[in-house]
Model the fold of this input.
Amino acid sequence: HPVTDDLRFSALVHKAILNGGGFFDVISASCQQVVKSYYDWQGTFSAIFIFSLQPGVFSDNLYCLTTFIMVFALTFSTYFFIDTIVSKLLKQKRIYSLFLSVFVLFFSIQFMYDKQQGLFWFNGSSYYTLFYAFALVFFAILIRLYLTKKTSNKIILFILSLIFAIILGGGNYSTALITSCIMFLVVLGLFLKKDKLFKWFLPSFVLLIGAFIISIVAPGNAVRGALLVGYNPIQAIVMSPIRMLMLIAEWTRLPQIAAFIFVTPLLYKMSKKTNLKFNHPFLVAVFSFLIFCTQITPPLYAMRGSGGAGRQVNIYYYAFYLFVMFNIFYICGWLNKKDGITLKANTFNFNKIALSISACLIILIGASALDSAFVQTSVGIINGSVQQYDKEYKEIIEMVKAGEPEIPEISTNPRFFHSLGFHTSWGINDTSSYFGVKPFKVKER
Done:
């Protein structure tokens, strides 16, 4: 069910729908919300546009689509990105794409850093998970644009790259920053190589940076920033690697270590079949880590010691698996190309190794299964807490709609669902504004 910021950012659209407004009225209301937030809260215009269209605004019964949207977006984008690199760029078998995608997605979804804010809350998950997915699709489109020879396909991919550039520039600052950094390096590389595709990539980079700047200079950012205390820019940059190393240490547990060992033989085999040069493993590892760390710089600048709320840390967590796999692949390629170190495939029985590691992996994942999304949600359904949450929510919202002066906060709240937020004045004001009633008081249940 929609809660807190879901209601705040979609109140104008909800009002338009209740008044019988059509498609253009809804879009107009969304644009009004973007303008309003731009001046009084934050400049992330494309994100706010999406916030205003949360599924529950059309019908509370549709809000459950949130989880399906986020899982689909993460699944599609991860596979599309990995498959573009593996089958299109590296010319490897498509089954490798599927295998690596399932590996990344299993850990990303089942052991997500914050399942509540990443799977079941539209406002929080769309701001980060959805825009992370957009970034993967954007880079996959650019790779395909680089590789394709057919002019008509080039034009289609070029137009899509421009659209995604604007969307990403107006999205969350972590994704916008890392995307901008990578795009700068790509465009610079094409320019220095005098590659004719430079002209196809430059417009999307310009639009990305332009949209990012429009988002950054929003008057609303100063309003929101006044409520927070952060590092200065230099401190934020210096602290980024430190904070990210702390998170990586937290995520690198026995199941993850076993999983990375499990995929190493495949990555080794893939690196052996490429003509790429792998001359600088140390420099690539350090540089890729610093690029990876740019994601955490914006929240450190805004909130000092915090790497962001759970919904934000989720995107670092998703990218963590891609980052580690990339470096394993590069190191394997370096070993393959280096004289005297190259490992012959027939030296090892990869099947036996994979079987042994699989057995260990299953045991380790089983030991940590209580923390998985599958187990947590299953328990919530079996013990009835999900059903009780649903019942209480509907009863409370009916009281809000009826204009009751005193409303109880929900008492049954599964750990993977978001509270109503009545414990804050914002939660009360957002709810009353959304339903068009006077602010209410909260009583103990």
